[in-house]
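REQUEST FORM: STRUCTURE PREDICTION
Request ID: SP-0412
Submitted by: Lab K.M.
Chain count: 1
Length (residues): 291
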Amino acid sequence: MKKSFFWFYLLVIYALCQLIGWGYIFIKYVPDRKGMVIGEGMIFLVIFVLAVIRLKKHFLQERRYAHQQQNFLLAVTHELKSPLASVKLYLQTILKRDLNREQQKAFLSNSLKDIERLDYLVENVLLATKLEGRSFNLPKEDFDFSALIDEILDRLQKNSCKTEILKPNIEQGIILHADKFAITNVVTNLVENAIKYSPPCAHVEVNLYRKGKDLIFKVSDRGIGIPDEEKRLIFNKFYRMGNESTRKTKGTGLGLYIVKSVLQKHDATIRVLNNDPVGSIFEVTFQNYAS
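STATUS: Completed
RESULT:
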């Protein structure tokens, strides 16, 4: 990329030198058309400078996107390698050591959790790929949204912390017409993010309720919060908060991109609010909802 910028700047300097040189020659040999040459030259110079600025901006965006893609590949590799190594170790231990039934059950249970983590990662990548296709449509059906959230929270509660961490306030009996798989991904991503960026065993509140004609799904955490300048960027593909060298949380940068894309296909909106006194609130609104 540095070599590309070198040739880019070299070409810009060459073009400017050519412009100045040909302008000087025209003025020298056709002095009666000096005004026209200067006018045309200024118009060309303005267009040229604007084109250079736009091209440079495009180069910088491409470099940033390539860097994010590289980080994504590294993150995916790590996310795949860690649970695979864990499952391998558990199974090798079961085969090589004489464990009692309870120990075997505990090891197999932990292996199942790691496999579920792998399955979730693969589903995220596949869904993100599908969502990029403009012709891709999510198959919608009626399902019990309240029961789905309860099921997801029960699973995540078991995998997160032994003490009470998830505080659900779910209005029961809400039927949603949507893609169940995609909405499951939305709920899981938002709740897992809240857990991931919160202090150990902090409370994460999950709410579902009707508000007039709208349906509100809300996830509130007591984590590190999100700066105002990053609230719009966090939904970009591969984007992750913070610096790569100092970031402590795992992730691929796909979660919130998938959330925003899925909700757009359901004519729903999401906004990020500041929690009081600390943390963030992700509020999803299904407009003109009717159960």
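NOTES: Residues 243-248 have pLDDT under 50 and may be disordered.
Reviewed by: T.R.
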